[in-house]
Fold:
Amino acid sequence: MVSKTEESQLNRLENQVDNGGGGAWEYLCLARKLKVRRPEKALKYGLSILNDSKKRYALGPEQWTLYEQVAIAAMDCQCLDVAKDCIKVLQKKFPESKRVGRLEGMLLEATGSRAEAEKAYSSLLEDNPLDQVIHKRRVAMAKAQGNISAAIEWLNKYLEIFMADHDAWRELAEIYVSLQMYKQAAFCYEELILSQPTVPLYHLAYADVLYTLGELENLQIAKKYYASTIDLTGGKNTRALLGICLCTSAMRQLSKGRNKEDKESPELQSLAAKALEKDYEQIADDKLGLLTCALRSLKI
Amino acid sequence: MAAELKYEISQHAYIKLVLHALKHNTTAVNGILLGRVNPQNENVVEIIDSVPLFHSNIALLPPLEIALIMVEEHYGSQGLGIVGYFHANERFDDAELGIVAKNIGDHIFRYFPQAALLLLDNKKLEAVPKGKGQSPLMQLYIRDTSKNWKLAGPDGGSRLVIKEPAANVVLSDYISSEKWQGIVDFDDHLDDIKKDWLNPELFK
Structure:
């Protein structure tokens, strides 16, 4: 997960390198640290260093990490020859290495030899049953083949062992959402909120899922989580502000003729609406008219 | 169901949708089609513009509801309405119209019975730089009398054409120049309202 500042830092470096200002190695390190997927740049910048023997030697032992990064980026860009070359270099330097074995498995995946890749991963897991990366590669392979139920099964098994892997919980939640299994997605976000209660993204996603599930009770809880997102982000989250308005409108629709008005925080929606109008006025005033109409149609 | 319909999509709307799919090539994306029934010929639906919507968590309601309200409001003032939905699957070899696309399509159908569902054809997209075909890179689905979304086949019946015949050539150019970098969708707008989902500068 990448914050806005981290993303702009990465983009700034990218622009710098693209315009000849150097900084390729810094970019590659940051991309690796943030685990972002920008294979074209990683491949281009990585090769520019690897193909220059002076730059390569200057890296010292870190050059092997670069070979690995470039191999993976090359596979993502379908430049399999580059990937093969990088892996050969690593095989020579680190024979019998499990980490290189992983790359070999990924290469099998990239060339479409899925059955071979499956065998390679299984045998690596026999020697190393706690290798998280390989467990996750198995999930990724199942997903890539369209076998979503297998991906869910593997991912659930993985999370039974590695229940602190937040990225895995998020991946599982997103898979459930894509299948419209919202209750199961909600469970995943509940786990994430329990273990990392100050990350606003989980509150927001949880609220979105609850709203999608519908029904008064879920909407009431969704509204609370939109509110906590606003709290955690200092009021800067447009999605959460809009979420409050949507919840209020939907709850009003559902409680028509039921005499169950939402007596909690009646000012919340007008405050949210005001905050939205202020933001749009300052930053996107060409869309302010649309926002006002939208709020009006939601009867805020 | 109604007589055979012809769906005419403008180059502008068409290219925007494909570029959006190319920008987010590791996830599913979707978009909304805007247009109207041709005032001179009620068997022709003109798809005049499109708005790229999301590239993450497509099956969540809140962003979709807001997007539909705002899009409808903006285009309504130009006399255009929502006439269909575009979807591109996450995986290259997934050519099925998924349940989420069908659900959103059903919703649009309620307001516009000639609604079109367009699904990106990945194999055709792959072939674009090589061939010089004029047929759109999307498959057209329409609702039949049994409330199912059916693929409009080459054996007659409704069909989708691009208004400008050289659209795929233009698209090829844009692909080589990586024009998709500049495309903004509703997801981007919700993350930063400064970004404009109307993409007014994209084709200048």
In short: The first strand of chain B starts at residue 6 and ends at 9. The longest helix of chain B spans residues 61-76. The interface with chain A takes residues 26, 28, 56-63, 65-66, 69-70, 73-74, 90-91, 93-94, 99-100, 103, 190-191, 193-194, 196 of chain B (CB under 8 Å).
